[in-house]
Give the backbone structure.
Amino acid sequence: MSRFSKFLALAYCLVSAGVSADQVAATGKLLVATDEVRGLHFAETVILLLHHDESGTLGLVVNRPIDAAPIEALPQLEDLADYRGTLYWGGPVRLSTMHALLRTDRPPDDAVQIFDAVHLVTLDETLPAAASNAANLRFFIGYAGWAPGQLERELAFDSWHIFPATEEVVFAEDPSDIWRRLVPPREYRAAAEIKASGVRDGSFSQHLLYALR
């Protein structure tokens, strides 16, 4: 099937009443890169969608920890100096910004629920109280964004799988294993072969830290 035919097929699916809701991009869903995705930024990524509608799409990459603390990336956030959790690369857009996800049954008043007990929260004076439990609070520098219709085109080109998000995935203790567990085995094997050939650079964290300096 040609890529144009795939796009037409996707367009038909999106308006078809028989399409499963799990197969459509939406807030609270996961985008899991297929082996069609290449490049340093998005190969083997898992992205939590924070917003998706006709105005565009925004998400956070949840499986790219980097070797830095939040206070190192944005020193102006001095209230978070005691946070002992890992900083994550959320995506290539606006690396001067930071977002926080909090897992709680009692979110702050201005929190935005993404799914279940996972909320997008404001970086303010209420966070240091939550920072004592890094297992329930994650910080992301930058984010992933798509213009209107862009994500649908990428879906038509087999760039992403879509799955419902779970707290176990988004707050996984070992995020390096998330992508492998979510993609079909054949895609994992294909990605491993590409890595072995040297096409993909495994020093992502070093590239990002250099860019932040």
About this structure: The chain is about 25% helix and 25% strand. Residues 1-21 have pLDDT under 50 and may be disordered.
